[in-house]
Amino acid sequence: MKIEAFSTLDAVIRSGSFAGAAVQMNLTPSAVSMQMKQLEQYLGMTLFDRSGAQVRPLVAAFDVASAMREGLLRLDVLRRRPSMAIEGVVRLGIIESLLPSLLPGTLSSLRERHPRLAVRPMRGRSASLVADVKAGQLDAAVVAMPAKGGSDRLRWWPLARRDLMLIAPPDSTEASATALLRRYDWIRYDRNTVTGAMAARHVLSLVPDKRGALELDSAPAIIAMVSGGLGVAIVHMLDEGLRKAYPVREVSLGRSAPNLVLTLVSRKSSEDDRALVALREALTQQLR
């Protein structure tokens, strides 16, 4: 059992549920549940009433959280003391389409706050970057969460959730995604990527007989072609610079929009590494 379980318990108490604690701690509800069972085994006492539909903390849970709260706060202060400089080199993989929007601000923030910490970026696709993290060739990577969830062998830290949207030429007039897909050519995002696979499933759910006119693995190239009137596409629009350089109409796909979850993935053995904690904080700040 790790000391983080006490922080998770405090999050459960403050949020009132395992699901709420999961959001605060960047964990899944099942991971929160497992930590709480491990904590109960470690303490030799029951902390929750699981007899009803909603898990409820017992008095013992409040007592444990209260006893540990001040100590955890002091430890956090010690970890963040300026004298304890974060230094070293982090090998970071990042999806190529995120490089312009995410990397400059993240590196600037880290350079200001942790001047002894160096980041060595490497671009690639989500699948290959995850494989490199598993193999130890990368310390961490910013990737799209696989549709079926990530490997249990790795640690996944959700950074941001974004809906994909349909983009159309700026002079288009059709109001719906279906009408736009019927009128214009479909410029596909590479189907071998997480984003491309999600986009393709959505297009075929709207227009089952639609076939792609082009297939590219570069979001900037796709956006530029759509801006030039060559077709429509379903992509993520995370880069404000691309919006200004290549004007397009952005059409919401509504409640059924495919959802892209950007995640920092690392090996479980490295999840407490202070350099990776600093990197995760900088990435989260930039995405906000």
TrEMBL record:
Annotated HTH lysR-type domain residues: 1-58
Decide whether keyword Nucleotide-binding is in the record.
no
A Pfam family found in this protein is HTH_1
Q: Keywords assigned by UniProt?
A: DNA-binding, Transcription, Transcription regulation
Asked if the Swiss-Prot or TrEMBL record annotates the protein with the keyword Metal-binding, the reply is no
- PROSITE patterns recorded: HTH_LYSR
Q: What InterPro entries does this protein's entry cite?
A: LysR_HTH_N, LysR_subst-bd, WH-like_DNA-bd_sf, WH_DNA-bd_sf
The UniProt entry's sequence similarity note says:
Belongs to the LysR transcriptional regulatory family.
What is the protein name for this chain?
A: LysR family transcriptional regulator
Q: What is the lineage of its organism?
A: Bacteria, Pseudomonadati, Pseudomonadota, Betaproteobacteria, Burkholderiales
